[in-house]
Specification:
Layout: H1 2-18, H2 23-27, E1 54-62, E2 70-76, H3 83-93, E3 101-102, E4 111-117, E5 120-125, H4 136-150, E6 158-163, E7 166-167, E8 181-182
Helix pairs in contact: 3-4
Length: about 200
Amino acid sequence: MVKKLTMLLVLVLALLLGGCVQTEQRTGTTGSVTDVTGKAPGLANQIDPNLKRIEVTVYRVQKNGDTHLIPEVVKYAPGTKTLAEASLDALVNTAPTSKQLMNVFPKGTKVLGVKVEGDLATVNFNKAFAAHGQGSYNELMMVNAVVCTLTEVKGIRQVRFLVEGRPIDTISGHVDLSEPLRRLTGMIGKPLKDDE
């Protein structure tokens, strides 16, 4: 019985991890982006300061307990934020437009910053983000909503988590945050229809 349970857990883990493998990992080749424009690096993350509102795609959690994140386009006033900061701020601080979706971030959660270096985004939250007692579902969905939202920004492929400027290994012991995380494509569902 224990052997069967162990095999089942290994299979589930393999399926979850298999869905998030990036193309370069499958092909064995890695690429780099060469700036042929002569412009400063990181411009894909910049926003035209003349824009009053932008559209960003954020990933929301379903109220029915489904483990698929639902993409939702949000209009957001970025101010002086980078695209990565604006996207994450929109995820944390806006309410879903659909009644089927919810915001799982603990009350008082604030984005203190997002630093992008190469394909890695390092996010810094205040301590409210790491409030204990969230449960495995909320922790899993919240962390992956952050990863999926930030990997919508061109060039970002992985996300590292900080709280008050310090690395964290986990929030409540359900998701390992000791290493940068990549998008789990198997967790992404289809956008909801307007009438849902």
